[in-house]
Amino acid sequence: MKLFWHIAENMLNMPKIIDSIDCGDGYIDGKSPGKILTTWAINKTLDPLSATNLGEWVTSSIIQDLSGLPGEYFTDSAFYSALDRVFFKDTTADGYTDFIIHLILRTRACHQ
Q: Is the pLDDT of residue 67 over 80?
């Protein structure tokens, strides 16, 4: 788990990239969409069957220490709110705004 967090945070800059797209700031202390979604991605990779119990998985692992967030921050509501920030219905446009492509492009740019 330490290796996955290290890769996500230090090599891919996932939490910072997600936060900069979602919030306009890549350096958010404490609870942020980037940390929550990065934790969820690691959860899906290491234990795909526990995805519906993210809060339980977090409190039973060291991910809360690695992310710097207490286990009680990882609620279904926080997870869905973080997802909504990445993909949401844009009422000013005819359709949905999907920031996932921006996340992929920025991650690639970090490695070139």
A: yes
pLDDT of 81 higher than 70 = yes
86 vs 46, 49, 81, CA distance in Å? 22, 23, 9
Q: What are the residue ranges spanned by the domains of the chain?
A: 2-110
Report the candidate in 56, 50, 41 with the shortest Cα–Cα distance to residue 1: 41
